[in-house]
Write a structure and sequence with these properties.
The chain has 113 residues and is of the alpha+beta class. The chain has two helices and eight strands, in the order E-E-E-H-E-E-E-E-E-H.
């Protein structure tokens, strides 16, 4: 008998600003760097395209690459990009290697700041 686990939907208001912080072994590496408006819009579009399939987080994670998000409604949230997942709040989305690389490049490239 096969079991089907339905994923959750993560819906956030559009992102107006974002900044990125790099961590290594739980220690801050460098300073907070703002994301360019173009890269912020691309990340927002990616989140919109990937709003299905999120699962509840079980446990805690050391930060890897954190993204502070300011939404158009004024709320603030934080995303944590890890090698195998993107965590926002109490939910995580498993990432294929290509998805991780895309997001990593989008959020880490100097030209996106």
């Amino acid at each position: 008998m096969a079991a089907l686990l339905a994923g959750c939907t993560v819906k956030t208001d559009s992102i107006s600003q974002a900044s990125v912080t790099q961590w290594q072994n739980g220690k801050l590496q460098g300073e907070v760097k703002p994301l360019s408006p173009v890269a912020t819009a691309q990340f927002d579009a990616w989140l919109t395209d990937h709003r299905w399939g999120w699962l509840p987080v079980h446990g805690t994670f050391l930060p890897a690459l954190t993204i502070s998000l300011t939404h158009t409604d004024g709320t603030v949230s934080t995303a944590n990009l890890r090698k195998d997942s993107l965590v926002i709040g109490d939910y995580q989305l498993r990432l294929a290697d290509a998805e991780y690389e895309y997001l990593r490049n989008l959020l880490s490239s100097p030209e996106n700041r």
